[in-house]
Amino acid sequence: MINDYSVGDTAQMKKPHPCGSSLWEIIRTGADIKIRCLGCSHIVMLPRNEFNKKLKSIIKKTAD
User: Fold this and answer.
1) Which residues make beta-bridge pairs with 36?
2) How far apart are CA 44 and CA 10, in angstroms?
3) Least reliable range by pLDDT among 17-21, 38-42, 52-56, 58-62
4) What pTM value is reported for the model?
């Protein structure tokens, strides 16, 4: 399980969004994770456990 992510990180999901992009920016963390598609700017909120299942990797970490 990958749990070291924060707001501003770029996440790669296992399945692509219908627009064709599989890259998402994390815009909110907590019990739910809010992500924005980098292809079409669609915003989705997922429960943390569902996000962890669908996450493939963290591509770009923000500077802490």
Assistant:
1) 25, 43
2) 14
3) 58-62
4) 0.86
- Average pLDDT of the residues of the chain: 90
35 CB neighbour count, 10 Å cutoff: 25
Q: How many C-beta neighbours within 10 Å does residue 30 have?
A: 8
CA distance 15 to 6: 21
SS3 59: strand
Distance CA 24, CA 41 (A): 9
Q: In this structure, are residues 56 and 5 in contact, taking their beta carbons and an 8 Å threshold?
A: no
Give phi and psi for 59, each to the nearest 5: -85, -50
Q: CA 6, CA 25: separation in Å to the nearest integer?
A: 10
> What is the structure's pLDDT at 4?
80
